[in-house]
Amino acid sequence: MIKKLLLTSICALLGFTSTFAQNVKIDSISKIQNNIFINTDTVALPILVENPLLMNQNYIYKLRLDSISKTIPLPYNEFVQQYIDVYTKRKDMFGKMIGLSTYYFPIFDKALNDYKLPTEIKYLTIVESQMNPHAISRVGATGIWQFMFGTGKAYGLKMDNFVDERKDPIQASYAAAAYFRDAFEELGDWLLAIAAYNCGKGSVTRAIEKAGSRDFWVIREFLPKETRNYVPAFIAAVYVMNFSAKHQITAQVSNLYLKTDTVQTSKFVSLAMLAKALNVDESTLFALNPSYKKKIVNGTDGLPKRIVMPKIKDNDYAEVYNVLNNANLDTDMQIIQAHTDDVRELRKKATTKVTSTSVTYHKVTVGQTLVSVAVKYGVELQDLKVWNGLKGKTIVPGQKLKIYSKVSHQFKAPAAYLSYKVKLGDTLSEIAEKFDGSTVQSIKRDNRLAKAGLQPGMVLKISKG
């Protein structure tokens, strides 16, 4: 009897198990078909959602960041971790950055030290341009420090048909240092100053007002999307550059000469001819002097220019001397001040009706280039391209080009200064951008401002340059 009951129980149990397995199988298929975590669309890309990490944070990163934190705080959080994850996978890129840093970081350190600023700021050049002096963003920010035209001009950088000092590592580093000095004076926090370098001091000030806080991580949601990620990317770049060995990142040798000499010249000097006299490849000298557009150094008595040369033994110094003092260089020496290359401003120009101008039509002759036409009429090359809807520099004989020139009027001599009433959120750099010939330094000098901070309602004198 007991055996019969046991056999019946076992059969019943086996039947239940079979039914349960069938139900599980059917239920599993249903769940797979309706599972929101399974993406059946092979075209769609995964979307990163900014959710705070609640568990499994890798605190070794926090400990490492704490160990290198100096003046600028380097907090660890999920946003920083995301960029550490991205950057540590870019081993080739950071290998190149470490190699380039042996040449560029001493330049950046010198400028930052001269302004008594934290040298950690130099790591922003990795986020900005990957330390490429010829980098140009989609909106026109240029150089290692990615200066927009107006901001570069406001901080004393010169742009003309011969030179773009935004590409000069030394000049641009001093301009960046001046910007950070002013940003920190106005905002009082290094992470806010770094955010301002990306989106402008005015945008950060407005975000502070909306959030009611001066903590970057609190105001972050009120900043432009790019700026929200800019500070975490900076902290991640600092981390990777200091702990590259922990992530199997190997330094790559830079092709830039580490030992150099610097000379000032008041003559027009051909970099190609100088490279020949130095017996080095032209590309070597161009890389050390990236700001000269035509590969010609346009020094004058009133404004000498710097040339950086590799320090090489057994040079033919007589030949080098002749090149540096050649007064008969065959080139048009007329210097034409550049207009904005801010893509947003150029779009406005292209869609705005031209007023108070006269139009001249130029017929292209054999041998002429777009550059030579621009020089002939004293206009900027970029303007010439916009006026004629040209995507490149190619022109052909017989082609007609439109040239716009301002109509001259006789006016009474203007006063030496204009006046400007400060509005809420105004900054010195933004005000300087509004007036030709003005810089942050000239406004501070003319108004005897000890610091860059402004108060709404202040009336500033603006020199007409």
Write the SSE topology.
Layout: H1 2-34, H2 59-68, H3 78-89, H4 91-114, H5 124-129, H6 149-154, H7 169-187, H8 190-199, H9 201-211, H10 216-219, H11 225-242, E1 260-265, E2 268-270, H12 271-278, H13 282-288, E3 296-298, E4 305-310, H14 317-324, H15 343-351, E5 357-363, H16 370-377, H17 381-387, E6 400-406, E7 417-421, H18 428-434, H19 440-446, E8 459-463
Antiparallel strand pairs: 1-4, 2-3, 5-6, 7-8
Structural write-up:
By secondary structure, the protein is mostly helical. Among the domains are: 59-133 and 168-247; 260-324, no CATH class; 357-406, Membrane-bound Lytic Murein Transglycosylase D, Chain A (Roll), CATH 3.10.350.10; 417-463, Membrane-bound Lytic Murein Transglycosylase D, Chain A (Roll). Helix content is 46%, strand content 9%. It has 19 helices and eight strands. The chain has helices at residues 2-34, 59-68, 78-89, 91-114, 124-129, 149-154, 169-187, 190-199, 201-211, 216-219, 225-242, 271-278, 282-288, 317-324, 343-351, 370-377, 381-387, 428-434, 440-446; strands spanning 260-265, 268-270, 296-298, 305-310, 357-363, 400-406, 417-421, 459-463. Residues 1-7, 16-48, 51-56, 351-356 and 407-414 have low confidence and may be disordered.
